[in-house]
Amino acid sequence: MKSMNKLPYEGVRVIEFSHMVMGPTCGMILADLGAEVIKVEPIEGDKTRKLLGSGAGFFSMFNRNKKSIAVDMKTPEGIEIINKLVSTADVICENFKQGTMAKLGLDYETLKKKYPKLIYVSHKGFLPGPYEHRTALDEVVQMMGGLAYMTGPEDRPLRAGTSVNDIMGGTFGAIGVMAALRQREVTGEGQEIQSSLFENNVFLVGQHMMQYAVTGVAPKPMPSRISAWAIYDVFEVAGGEKIFLAVVSDTQWKIFCDAFGFSDLFNDPSLHSNNQRVKARSTLIPEVRSRIAGLSASYVSNIFEKNSLPFAPITRPEELFDDPHLEATGGLAKLTITDGSNAGKETKTPLLPLTINGERLGIRANTPKTGEQTHEILFELGYTAEEITRFANKGSI
Q1: Which residues, including other chains, have CB under 8 Å from residue 153's CB and lie 6 or more apart?
Q2: Which among 171, 247, 267, 272 is least buried, having the fewest CB atoms inside 10 angstroms?
């Protein structure tokens, strides 16, 4: 497994009290960047490990490069262990329901009195305000925050095809932690960071809000939108294959027409400018569709690629495991699945979409098994072998 010589957050300890996607995403980003992230799980393991259907990949995707300690925090011994662990933390990361951490004495207001340098990041459905008591999910905020409306056809709101708000909410949580760590270098003090699903979703649709502010016209859902460009759509070609094609400038329009021999379209005075072509879209798109319908997707792709025109095959997620670009650039890293029917199977997983000094941030450790590092961490906290055995016999670990 690849490891850089010195990662940016090496030496930073993060204690993660989280499950599902949002909190674990924050922890994963910090772990990929070198932080020691210790995931606190119940004795039976994070329930996310056992999810089926669309949740089956959550744990493997968002918990690499972490350690796991399994503790029953309902026992006196368990909460003692956690309090000792928290005393060693630079960062606490949590995404539980409002009040859960306070019941355990692990909320920010309690901990900051003992540990003024502590940085505490909470991932919630809503930032403090009228909605904060509500239970939120990615789908809930997509529906109430305009994203589902913009994604689906008219009168058919449709959630985006991935956990966009959970993942981005966790990303913004990590950004907040990074900012707080930098500020702590100056002030010597920690602080609380809050990230939320709803506000994240509103940030995502902000461009559509501002479209309305600028034009005074309410934006249409994406399938019904008035495109800024005439050729900007999915086209069906030979054999029923589909491909996305885009021609987004007057220069590209000339290149497109030359490449496909459409001189009559280029010479049509009603199609000279982009805005003219947008107005003529209702007739231009069907015309282009009919002209390329008999061509193969590979032929069209080759012409677009050769001429530096934007295009994209319509790819399914499972096909990305063999994507030549990801393979060549190290965008996928080997990972061994630790849970479920495929436990022990070696697969590949996407890395963070960035490079540092020309290198991708690799996987230093697989997703941990439940409590895999419990004994190691307890020894480090100063517990003896006899005490650890006693905790295990009591069911506290």
Answers
A1: 221, 223, 224
A2: 267
Cβ–Cβ under 8 Å, residues 131 and 141? no
Q: Which of 292, 313, 334 is the last residue in one of the domains?
A: 313
Kindly report, residue by residue over 171-192, the tens digit of the pLDDT: 999 999 999 999 999 999 999 9
Are residues 281 and 230 in contact, defined by beta-carbon separation less than 8 angstroms?
yes
The pLDDT value given to residue 341: 85
CB atoms within 10 A of CB 339: 20
Q: What would the two tokens of residue 131 be?
A: 């909605």
Q: Average of pLDDT values for 168-173? A: 98
How many Å apart are CA 305 and CA 303, to the nearest integer? 6
- Based on its alpha-carbon atoms, the radius of gyration of the chain, rounded to whole angstroms, reads 26
364: three-class secondary structure by DSSP? coil
Of 313, 335, 351, which one is at a domain's C-terminal end? 313
Q: Is 385 a residue whose pLDDT tops 70?
A: yes
Is residue 2's pLDDT more than 70? Answer: no
Could you read off the pLDDT of 312-357 as tens digits, one per residue? 999 999 999 999 999 999 999 999 999 888 899 999 999 999 999 9
- DSSP class of residue 51? -
pTM of the model: 0.93
Q: How many domains does the chain have?
A: 2
Token pair belonging to 378: 């307890």
- The 10s digit of each residue's pLDDT in 98-127 is 899 999 999 999 999 999 999 999 999 999
CATH number of domain containing 54: 3.40.50.10540
Q: Does 1 fall in a domain?
A: no
| Structure-token match 């003219």, residue found | 276
10 to each of 4, 7, 150, 171, how far by Cα in Å?
Answer: 11, 5, 41, 19
Q: Tokens standing for 97? A: 């329901």
Here the CATH number for the domain that contains residue 255 is 3.30.1540.10
Return the structure tokens found at 104.
Answer: 């355990």
In a domain, 339, yes or no: yes
Confidence of residue 5 (pLDDT cuts 50, 70, 90): low
Length reported for the chain: 397
Signed CA dihedral, 169, 172, 177, 180: sign only = negative
The type of residue at 379 is F
- Following DSSP, what letter does each residue of 160-178 receive, concatenated? -SS-HHHHHHHHHHHHHHH
Query: What is d(CA 3, CA 359) in angstroms, rounded to the nearest whole number?
Result: 10
Please give the structure tokens belonging to residue 128.
């403090």
